[in-house]
Structures are given as C-alpha cells and as structure tokens.
Specification:
47% of the residues lie in helices and 0% in strands.
Length: 130
C-alpha cells in the first residue's frame, strides 16, 4: 500500500519541479529578449518595428506577420516556426536564411536560445500568454 502512495508523491513532485523549470526558462528568456527589443515587440499591443512583432510565432509561417515588409529570402524560406526551426535559426540567422534583413549575429548559447524560445512561445497571435 505504501508503494503506490510513494510513487504518486514522486510523480507529483516531479511534475511540480518540471512546471517550475518551464516558468524559470521563460523568465530567463524574457531577460534574453532584451537583446531583441530594439527591433521586435511581443505581447498585447505589439507592433512591427525594424523587425516584425513576434506574437504567435510558434506555428507561424516565416514572412507572414501582417503589415511587415519582409525580404524575399524570408518570405520564400518555407519555414514554419517551431522550437527546432527557431533554435537552428537563432544560432546564425544569416546562415539559416541567406539575404534576410535581420542584422543580428545570433545566440550561440543553447540554454539561452531555449530560454528565449520558452518566452516567445508562450504568446498567442493576440499577444496573450497561453
């Protein structure tokens, strides 16, 4: 009888720890997003700047943020943004999409890139957190 209770307790603690780690990742990602703020906006009321607003990026086709003038390279990249695509892109944007207008050297640190994705992916297309 004690084994099922102990097992349930271990599962509950693990889930709590995992959900805390996700929140912490998004918090760290928000700090990393400060590198992006000069060109991008996210959240309720976000508007295009030098770069497109990033609401709803998870699942959005590259080059489709309404009202933003993308490079042909970006519009024709065939990318639909998800975690793997973003992580590959953010390491070296110009290598992933040659001739993109994005003038950013990239984020080489894998943990920082993952944290940034956790922050960005929490916003839906209307800028509300999921």
């Amino acid at each position: 009888m004690k084994t099922p209770i102990l097992s349930s307790l271990v599962v509950a603690i693990s889930l709590t720890a995992a959900s805390g780690a996700l929140a912490q990742d998004a918090t760290a990602g928000k700090a990393s997003f400060n590198k992006c703020l000069a060109c991008h906006a996210i959240g309720e009321g976000a508007k295009n700047k030098v770069g497109p607003e990033l609401n709803g990026i998870d699942g959005r086709k590259s080059g489709t943020a309404e009202g933003y003038s993308y490079s042909e390279a970006n519009k024709n990249s065939g990318i639909t943004w998800n975690k793997d695509q973003f992580l590959d892109y953010i390491k070296d944007p110009k290598a992933k999409i040659p001739n993109t207008k994005m003038a950013f050297a990239g984020i080489k640190n894998e943990k920082e890139a993952n944290d940034l994705w956790a922050f960005l992916a929490q916003y839906d297309k209307d800028g509300k957190t999921k």
